[in-house]
Amino acid sequence: MSFSSTHPFAVGNFRITPLSRSSGSDQHTALLSIQRGQGSQTHDRVYTFKPEFKTQDSALMYAAAQGRYWLLNPASLA
């Protein structure tokens, strides 16, 4: 199992990092890390999404889209 990330983006106090996890045989899972705070006061939530993707890029794009949607509607991942 391997992980891959794209460039994180920051908005206000939040740092959004789209991630992809490869489970082999052309299966990639989209993950999203949402970080808040600095130093020892950092809080990080990682969300895993249900759909499987055939390419790493499509999983990363899905995770990034979910991160942008979360910024508009934080209750969407509650």
What does this structure look like?
The chain starts with a strand and ends in a 6-residue tail after the last helix. The longest helix is centred in the last third of the chain and has 17 residues, at 56-72. It has one helix at 56-72; strands spanning 2-5, 9-11, 14-22, 28-36, 43-53. It has 78 residues and is an alpha+beta fold. It contains one helix and five strands, in the order βββββα. Strands 1, 2, 3, 4 and 5 form a five-stranded antiparallel beta sheet that branches.
Count of separate DSSP helical elements? 1
How many structural domains can be distinguished in the coordinates? 1
Shape: globular
Low-confidence stretches: none
Helical/strand content category: alpha+beta
Mean pLDDT: 88
Largest sheet entry: 5 strands, antiparallel
Residues in β-strands, percent:
over 45%
Question: How would you summarize the topology of this molecule?
Answer:
Elements: E1 2-5, E2 9-11, E3 14-22, E4 28-36, E5 43-53, H1 56-72
Antiparallel strand pairs: 1-3, 2-3, 3-4, 4-5
Notable features of this structure?
78 residues; 5-stranded antiparallel beta sheet; alpha+beta; globular; 22% helix
Entry summary:
The protein is of the alpha+beta class and 78 residues long. The protein has one helix spanning 56-72; strands at 2-5, 9-11, 14-22, 28-36, 43-53.
